[in-house]
Amino acid sequence: MKRVYVNEQWCLGCHLCEYYCAFANTGEKNMARALKDIKIQPRIRVEEGNDVSFAVSCRHCREPLCVKACISGALQMMDGVITIDQDKCIGCCTCILSCPFGSVALSPDGHAAQKCELCVQTAAGTPRCVDGCPNNAIVFEERG
Fold first, then answer.
1. Can you give the pLDDT of all 144 residues of the chain as single tens digits?
2. What pTM did the predictor assign?
3. Topology of the domain comprising 1-57+123-144
4. Distance (Å, rounded) from C-alpha 45 to C-alpha 30?
């Protein structure tokens, strides 16, 4: 199954992936209009260190601890993609606590969890963070 991978040596720390992610989840057609004057809430985030920057997003684990920990059944895995049913999520944060990669967070309203869902509901095949990366540091591919 294809997943999002980060090539740290190519990451510039520009945060464009965060903007493309936030835009993908607005449902709007114009990025400037959709993100104007708002604090973005991307489902991917760039971590910056002294010598390296890299994007952190859900790894869609083969045996996801977040899905096992979800007491409401809001997290599900279908065809290798872990998604959250916002209507079922009760905001208990067990998925956040159980993710070993720190890839699950509270949604902007604080009532439900949010995470990368590979843009399965918004993109045509490739996650927006991958499309928006100017240096090809984020890729969507199968690896062994």
1. 888 999 888 998 999 999 999 998 888 889 999 999 988 989 999 998 888 888 889 999 999 999 999 999 999 999 899 999 999 999 999 999 999 999 999 988 888 999 999 987 665 678 999 999 999 999 999 887
2. 0.87
3. Alpha-Beta Plaits (3.30.70)
4. 22
pLDDT value for 30: 93
**What single-letter amino acid sits at 27?**
G
> What is the C-alpha separation between 12 and 98, in angstroms, rounded?
29
Length of the chain: 144
Distance of CA 141 to the CA centre of its chain: 16
- Gap between the Cα atoms of 5 and 1, Å rounded: 12
For the residues of 80-128, what is the DSSP string, one character each?
TEEEE-TTT-----HHHHH-TT---EE-TTSSSEE---TTTTTSSSS-H
Q: Where are the domains of the chain?
A: 1-57+123-144, 61-115
Spatial separation of the C-alpha atoms in residues 25 and 120, rounded to whole Å? 11
Same fold, 1-57+123-144 and 61-115: yes
Structure tokens at 17: 């992936």
CATH class of 61-115: alpha beta
